[in-house]
């Protein structure tokens, strides 16, 4: 027994040294976003702007963080964004940020984080590829350690998603309180299209709308499952608040816009009622923590969107203007939709928002005319609204006048 322990004591350090050599010669590749984050910390940027694809889609267009940088030339704005990023992963970034600031003489002035209501859906929340386990592990372990030891950890499953494909596909989908099927039912029916691929991970967004009869299913899948305070992403949101408050770093949340007019057409009043109820859960939690949030969810009309949540350039610019107005109120920008914890007026147009903090309505910047032919979502919504049967909604999306 003693001989075995001696051999083991020799073997373990030897294996460790061999792995250090192997990891140095063949380091594990680190995701570009994590490397970019590290570079921005070392550059001591003033504003860290996290985001999902709503800040940059479509590729090649100017991103919302880049627009914010234009408005704030005296500050440096760092962007960390990727398709399907969400609050759980933002928490991992914030934990790494706080550790870094504790060890260095640096603290950003602001952290900006979008809250995408779609991210709470079973389609997004439970998708194995969207768990970003590898990124979370690397942010927790550090880049150097991950480069040296990431390959064996990956081989032994340390970076695997905690949610299996089978568990994901069996997740129940709700429309309000009614179970309407499973993820498998909706995935198979909708035939999601791939927007971006990273190794074996697929990030699924609609580049064009699905068939006419499937739009209603898509909206149910993305937005109609009830949200409760126990949701893991909301718990991550609260941890982010606590960490940044303790670190005395400014935090600016905003709820991303959604094409509510499309929901009005296809789902009627039930769409806004459910969306507003879910949004209220988020706003109330943040109000309890005295955290202000920009609620931009209902601000933009259908022709600002390229699909349910991704924006044309003028829509992104509107978002940038509202964010900049909070960071530097002296800049001559449009009035914003800041929700404050001192306001307690309900939205008269949305019964489900009774008790929600009030907003000040902003006027979006003028937008060039968008032809329905260049916006599949707008064209489909307009066509549906003019059918003999008509939509159930109170508002009908119409193309802007030529």
Provide the fold topology.
Layout: H1 2-25, H2 32-43, E1 47-51, H3 64-71, E2 77-81, H4 87-103, E3 110-115, H5 122-125, H6 133-141, H7 143-155, H8 165-169, E4 172-175, E5 178-182, H9 183-190, E6 194-198, E7 201-204, H10 215-223, H11 232-246, E8 250-255, H12 260-267, H13 269-288, E9 293-295, H14 313-327, E10 338-339, H15 376-385
Parallel strand pairs: 1-2, 1-3, 3-8, 8-9
Antiparallel strand pairs: 4-5, 6-7, 9-10
CATH architecture of the domain at 29-159 and 229-367: 3-Layer(aba) Sandwich
CATH fold name of the domain at 29-159 and 229-367 = Rossmann fold
Give the tally of β-strands.
10
Number of helices: 15
Strand content: 5-15%
- Give the uncertain stretches in residue-range form: 193-202, 340-402
CATH class of the domain at 29-159 and 229-367: Alpha Beta
Q: Structural class, from secondary structure content?
A: alpha/beta
Order of helices and strands: HHEHEHEHHHHEEHEEHHEHHEHEH
Q: Supply the CATH superfamily name of the domain at 29-159 and 229-367.
A: SGNH hydrolase
**What integer value in Å does the Rg equal?**
23 Å
Q: Order of strands side by side in the largest beta sheet? A: 2-1-3-8-9-10
Instruction: Write down the overall geometry.
Output: globular
Ends apart, CA distance between termini: 87 Å
Overall mean pLDDT: 80
Largest sheet: 6 strands, mixed
Proportion in helices: 40-55%
């Amino acid at each position: 027994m003693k001989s075995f322990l001696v051999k083991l004591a020799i073997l373990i350090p030897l294996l460790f040294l061999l792995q250090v050599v192997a990891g140095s010669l063949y380091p594990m590749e680190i995701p570009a976003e994590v490397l970019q984050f590290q570079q921005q910390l070392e550059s001591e940027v003033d504003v860290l702007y996290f985001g999902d694809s709503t800040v940059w889609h479509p590729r090649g267009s100017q991103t919302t963080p880049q627009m914010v940088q234009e408005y704030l030339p005296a500050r440096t704005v760092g962007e960390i964004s990727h398709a399907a990023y969400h609050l759980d992963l933002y928490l991992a970034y914030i934990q790494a940020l706080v550790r870094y600031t504790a060890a260095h003489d640096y603290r950003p002035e602001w952290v900006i984080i979008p809250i995408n209501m779609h991210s709470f859906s079973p389609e997004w929340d439970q998708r194995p590829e969207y768990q970003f386990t590898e990124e979370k592990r690397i942010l927790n372990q550090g880049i150097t350690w991950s480069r040296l030891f990431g390959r064996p950890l990956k081989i032994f499953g340390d970076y695997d998603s905690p949610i299996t494909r089978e568990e994901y596909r069996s997740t129940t989908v709700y429309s309000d309180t009614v179970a309407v099927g499973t993820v498998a039912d909706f995935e198979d029916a909708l035939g999601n299209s791939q927007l971006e691929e990273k190794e074996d991970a697929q990030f699924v967004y609609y580049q064009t709308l699905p068939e006419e009869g499937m739009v209603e299913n898509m909206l149910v899948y993305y937005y109609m499952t009830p949200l409760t305070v126990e949701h893991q992403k909301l718990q991550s949101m609260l941890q982010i608040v606590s960490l940044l408050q303790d670190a005395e770093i400014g935090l600016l949340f905003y709820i991303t816009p959604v094409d509510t007019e499309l929901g009005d057409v296809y789902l009627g009043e039930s769409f806004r009622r459910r969306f507003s109820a879910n949004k209220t859960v988020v706003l109330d939690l943040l109000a309890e923590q005295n955290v202000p949030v920009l609620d931009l969810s209902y601000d933009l009309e259908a022709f600002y969107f390229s699909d349910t949540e991704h924006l044309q350039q003028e829509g992104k610019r509107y978002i940038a203007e509202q964010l900049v107005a909070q960071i530097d109120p002296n800049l001559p920008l449009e009035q914003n939709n800041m929700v404050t914890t001192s306001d307690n007026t309900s939205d008269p147009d949305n019964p489900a928002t009774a008790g929600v903090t009030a907003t000040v309505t902003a006027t979006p910047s003028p937008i060039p005319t968008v032809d329905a032919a260049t916006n599949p979502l707008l064209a489909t919504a307009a066509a549906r609204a003019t059918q003999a049967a008509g939509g159930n909604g109170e508002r009908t999306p119409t193309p802007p006048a030529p």
